[in-house]
Amino acid sequence: MLLLISPFSGLCRGETLHQRSSVLLAAKARKAPADDFSFVVLGDSRGGDRTFSKLLELARSYNPLFILHAGDYSDEGSETETAKFLALLQRQVPELPIFVVIGNHENREIFPRYVGPLNFTLDIPRLGFRLVALDNADGELRPPEQELLRGELASAPAAVFAAMHIPPRTGRWRGHTFKKGAEQLEMILKGSRAQGLFFAHSHLYDRSVFAGIPAFIAGGAGAPLVWFTRNGETVYHILVVRVRKGKASYQMVPLREEPHRRR
To answer: What are the phi and psi torsion angles at 8 (to 5°)?
Structure first.
């Protein structure tokens, strides 16, 4: 049988990064300790391939279950940029599942064809884990995404997380945020089992609390560092999320640190 190969990072024709990563994740999840596993969050790598490559190596050193890219891998989301991004992932970390949240610089037609769905849920019952990724890349969280999150939280396991590209407008996060739908998001999250919220869009790192839940901007994966939110650290970094016995802990690891040795 002739296997047709796409120019997009060695993916089989018609296969998205999300589909390929889902297969890898299922295999890794079967072997992962149920009471102690990690994943990595990073975002905004556009225009900074050299830095992004180093951060992928840093992420790999933590032996994560998967990497979550919180959006903006490109400037315009073109097929050329997308091919370059996918090729870099295949070259640097071919064994790691990588899931991407759509960012405001991505193309909404090209992204689903090669990268993955605009909204998705990672659900691993064996680990008691769920991550809900939502599309707010056009600057608002619409009712369909609100309802999706509400439904996923209603049946959530112990370790549940949510991610979207643009952070909500708060007293701390004022610039480069979304306002329309932010109040509804807070109402949905209050009292839920969510343990962590992940955003990017601002090219820096910051930690806050939203709806009583730890909330992070992890936007330092290679794009020029900018102090958009008026708070936070302008540093290239990854966010390591470790889940032990159903409880999450967080470690921001700046690029200057030596790679962590595998457990």
So the answer is: -90, 90
- Read off the DSSP letter of residue 125: G
- Angle between the N-to-C axes of helices 49-60 and 79-92, in degrees from 0 to 180, rounded to the nearest 10: 40
Nearest to 180 by CA among 148, 142, 132: 142
Cα distance between residue 119 and residue 77, in whole Å: 17
CA distances in angstroms from 73 to 81, 98, 128, 144, 170, listed in the order given:
8, 12, 29, 25, 25
What 8-state DSSP symbol labels residue 259? P
Of 164, 220, 218, 217, which is closest to residue 189 (Cα–Cα)?
A: 164
Residue type, 144: P
Distance, CA of 77 to CA of 62 (rounded, Å): 29
H or E stretch covering 21: helix 17-31
Q: What number of H helices and E strands is found in the chain?
A: 6, 11
pLDDT tens digits, 171-184: 999 889 999 999 99
Q: What Rg, from alpha-carbon coordinates, does the chain have?
A: 17
For the question of whether the overall pTM of this predicted structure is more than 0.90, the answer is: yes
